[in-house]
Amino acid sequence: MHERATSVEGVRRTNLGAVLRLVHHEGARSRAVITAETGLNRSTVSDLVATLVGAGLVEERDPDPTRRVGRPSPIVAPSEDVVAIAINPEVDALEVGAVTLGGRVRARTRESVGMAVEDVVAAVARIVDGWRSGALRGCRMVGGGAAVPGLVRASDGVVRLAPHLGWRDEDIASRLAEATGLRFLIGNDASLGARAERLFGAARDHADVIYLNGGASGIGGGLVLHGMAIGGAEGYAGEWGQSRPGILLEADRRTTQGVLEDEVNRGRLLDAVGLPSADDAALARALAEATDGEVTGEIQRQRRILSAALANAVNALNPSVIVLGGFLAILHEHDPEGLLDLVRDQALSAPTERLEIRAAALGADRLLIGAAEAAFEPLLADPLA
């Protein structure tokens, strides 16, 4: 009897997670739609929704008044008072956000702090404490996630190496948990960005995705095949920036033994427009407004080298879409069709017949949303834990 009761409770918790995950990833929907999409019966869905409402995880709204046929069904939406704290430490700034169930960035701040782990942890603790008594007062913080530009071991979240931050073998999750009282999950920034774009952004209608993120620390990436994120044996897959670039024109080369991120580089774009630093929006504006031929030449040089790397990836992995984030999205938006043509010119024809290249749809939110998704995962797996 005890085993059966435990099994029944386990099934119920699984179903609760399925309903919560559905409205979190797909948005508000009626009970009737949830019934159809989950395959559960109507009374079961009613009970599950009532439980999630009681737990403060979802809310019910009045049904659509334009629906005039049949019995109206209440709308179930994820609660925006349930948030995960997301952080992205970079060489130029620390970004901290609060992301709601449903994937909306409710609060954010960007600060210049020291790159040492203790500086980042102290800043995050201070920001979270301020939000608890201010902008997020009354909200439920379910945990935190960190999108780190470096190698993160999948088994325990230890940052093995984040060279631009100067981090090596850092258990930052434990230090953040101690400082904030929240459980933190750590991941590679680009892998988490890929997850966000797959769930909420430019790749949500694709199962085979290559994602490349261009940030101040270089170029990282994520890979989704048949709908499954591919992390490799220890979680270190996706370091596209460390690949050796194919440079057809010797005049395009800027380093003798450099890797892709040495040639396709955010700092070189900033130098071209004469900016010491800038966020992606400011950099995009400066590049768009520049009339200097040297600026245009640098953009075209980086696009040529990037296209060769993308062609190699297409030949090896046959994605249906490539999503580019950060400064790589800026390079893409300069001439989207032209970049796709450059890739097609260097790749096998068959894998590029249906290929799309898209800019990251989530923009500056992509890494925060990805980090928050890691933090939400335990809640989505068992909403009553």
UniProtKB/TrEMBL annotation:
Residues 19-68 form the HTH marR-type domain. It holds the Pfam family MarR_2. Gene3D superfamilies: 3.30.420.40, Winged helix-like DNA-binding domain superfamily/Winged helix DNA-binding domain (1.10.10.10). SUPFAM superfamilies: Actin-like ATPase domain, Winged helix' DNA-binding domain. GO terms for molecular function: DNA-binding transcription factor activity. Belongs to the ROK (NagC/XylR) family. This is ROK family transcriptional regulator. The lineage of its organism: Bacteria, Bacillati, Actinomycetota, Actinomycetes, Micrococcales.
